Amino acid sequence: MAKTKVKKTGTSVPSPPHATSVQYLELLQNLSKISEEEAIIFRKEKNISVDTGDSNGQSAEIFKPVIRFSDSSAVLPKGLLKICDGFEDIPSAIQSQTWPYALTFSKSIVGIAETGSGKTIAFGIPAIAKVIHLSGTKKNVPNGKYSPDVLILAPTRELAIQIGETIEKATGFLEKPIKSTVIYGGVDRSSQLAHLLSTKPQILIATPGRLLDYLSEDELSLFTVSYFVLDEADRMLDMGFAPDVKRIVNAMDSTLSRQTLMFSATWPSTIKRLADSLIKGPSVRISVTSRSELLTSTDNSQFSPSSLKGGSTIKQIVTVVDDHQEKEKILFSLLSKYSSGKIILFVLYKKEADRIEQVLLKKGYKVSTIHGDKAQSARASALATFKDGKSLILLATDVASRGLDIPFVETVINYTFPLTIEDYVHRIGRTGRAGRSGVAHTIFSPLDKNHSGELIGVLRNSGQDVPQELLAFGTATKKREHKDYGSHYKEIDPSIKPKHFKFDD
């Protein structure tokens, strides 16, 4: 069960100016110590794009990026920045440009940055600061139910737990208790709810399923949520998660001034339209990518998944096999080739993961496995074993491809290609994090040929070699439209006759 921990240190919490005061706004506007000219150069060097235009085409002030964590001390409680001590006072690109807007406590944000870029700190520190600014504010919750001030949604249990650990670490440097709790499925429902209602945390980190479970039974409220975060937002708002997110947003007080922050490594324009419908009030889009104009385009016809790219520190390799049966032989060759470091091995289906796990165990490999059917305790144990180096192979379905920050992963192997090119980008982003180099090696078979055009686009956009065998599958794609969701379907080559497969999981 998720636990709330409150730590106290000898650090005192000062009283920064109230967020609505003129003094606070003046401090916020002057957080950055660089000139406008230097800010322009900084954004260009870091590939930062800022779009403050509203639906009427009017633009608002563009805040200068904060190039030192310490510059934010004037508006943050003393001690809160201690979580950043290991970063040599230098924020990542997404952090430097996000904080000035997030700390307004009014501007909503869409943040687009590659994996490992520090998005959790980008939204986590302002979340804690907002709770402190709200302290002492009277809450009017119907029927006196528990309701958090901050809600952070994550698509998987593992990512939710990871976010919770970061928030807990940051609040541990404060004297005044700030409580946070993580709720997710896969553990006892009643005991988790009892813990939640007894601690009443100001910050709630949740997966959609468990949160909706409690909401549907009227066991908690979201009436006071004024800071709402969607992490890995593209996954949340795809066809599977959009209804859940909308139900959660509809449970919030529509009259409350709510700040919404969405973060992801990819942002297809079809998903962007759905996100725009959920954002309340003024907003800004911050992209840290050399192709930001494609990822944030309001003209959906200009977007193609092939405009996506992998991280600059990731070497992408594709091995094309003639026969699907050849994949296992290639896999053992790759495991031998990359045996000196940690490997995440991705497959598509849960039963496929179980089968590959047994094959590897029989061959003497030490492997940890996570997928959606594994109990939470088993998943946590598998991740811990992999992180500690007791096993060098983590076998996973796409449940592990989003947001998890597992340090020192040298190699990602795609044994089975994912369902979408966006999932491919997220998978390979498990390596090459925090400036380290990594390798992503994909086994591509004729069964994957519908993805060839998209994969070729990602490789080219990333400056990677494209094997002739992959080019032979073709690069042409044709967009399909849906009356409700637009061009959300995978692009396909119309010359390829579709094949139909039936899976039992």
TrEMBL record:
PROSITE patterns: DEAD_ATP_HELICASE, HELICASE_ATP_BIND_1, HELICASE_CTER. GO terms for molecular function: ATP binding; hydrolase activity; nucleic acid binding; RNA helicase activity. Keywords: ATP-binding, Helicase, Hydrolase, Nucleotide-binding, Nucleus, Ribosome biogenesis, rRNA processing. It holds the Pfam family DEAD. Residues 313-474 form the Helicase C-terminal domain. Gene3D superfamilies: P-loop containing nucleotide triphosphate hydrolases (3.40.50.300). Its EC number is 3.6.4.13. It is an enzyme of class 3 (hydrolase). Residues 100-285 form the Helicase ATP-binding domain. Its main location: nucleus. Belongs to the DEAD box helicase family. DDX5/DBP2 subfamily. PANTHER family: ATP-DEPENDENT RNA HELICASE DBP3. This is RNA helicase. It comes from Mitosporidium daphniae.
